[in-house]
């Protein structure tokens, strides 16, 4: 299939993942429109992180397909999907603590711009990467913290650096895995606004796993509810939260 404006930014069809006889994901299918923000929620162990692993290429599904802008990327490794425009942040911090904020983001920018081992080309790439890193840090509101060591930041600011690193790779679709995990209540509002900006100002397509229901429901266009490795429901926050099967899943009743 060729890429085109009417095509979903990301789609999955009949996704399944079985490990040692256990079915971790089963018949998961949905499509995310360009510029849409989709929340992925569900009780612990529902398969949300595994779904993100399959989307980003860390895990290979045993059934089904992943389509990025209409292109079948199911067989592509992580770095090829990243090159095709898929960005991801993780539940746990992926920063180099001893490096500064700017150095962390510059590394991501350099990876995108293509490093060169030539001593003649290096200064040029380095300058371009520094410029790009500073732009992305400004976008997430951390311009004044570029010289701090990453390990000295609050959890909320670390998450913002991770988002800046992801943005430095120019993704068109981003996967945010529990961006609020470990973030103090005082930082949740600012981080929520950074994520809202990704969507509103950049038009980035965003999929976000998050346990903070108030954050998810206040941000997203639609919510997908996972339960026992299956897609239980998908729709607007109001419709999904009014769904009896979703209520039952959260109360631990059989659905
Ligand atoms: N490599 C694996 N081998 C065996 N079981 C696995 C593997 N990866 C995940 N699982 C199991 O699959 C299920 C789904 O796990 P997953 O981490 O995707 O859930 P989750 O919805 O992200 O949970 P949480 O909200 O707690 O992060 C769990 O029961 C988990 O133990």
TrEMBL record:
Q: Which GO terms describe its cellular component?
A: plasma membrane
Q: Alphabetically list the UniProt keywords.
A: ATP-binding, Nucleotide-binding, Transport
Q: Is ATP-binding set as a keyword in this record? A: yes
Which molecular-function annotations from GO does this UniProt entry contain? ATP binding; ATP hydrolysis activity
The membrane spanning regions, by residue number, are none
Keyword Transcription regulation on entry: no
Instruction: List, alphabetically, the InterPro entries matched.
Output: AAA+_ATPase, ABC_AA/LPS_Transport, ABC_transporter-like_ATP-bd, ABC_transporter-like_CS, BCA_ABC_TP_C, P-loop_NTPase
Q: Domain (ABC transporter): give its ranges.
A: 10-253
Q: Which Pfam families match?
A: ABC_tran, BCA_ABC_TP_C
Q: What is the protein name stated in its UniProt record?
A: ABC transporter
- From which source organism is this entry? Sinomonas atrocyanea
The organism's lineage?
Answer: Bacteria, Bacillati, Actinomycetota, Actinomycetes, Micrococcales
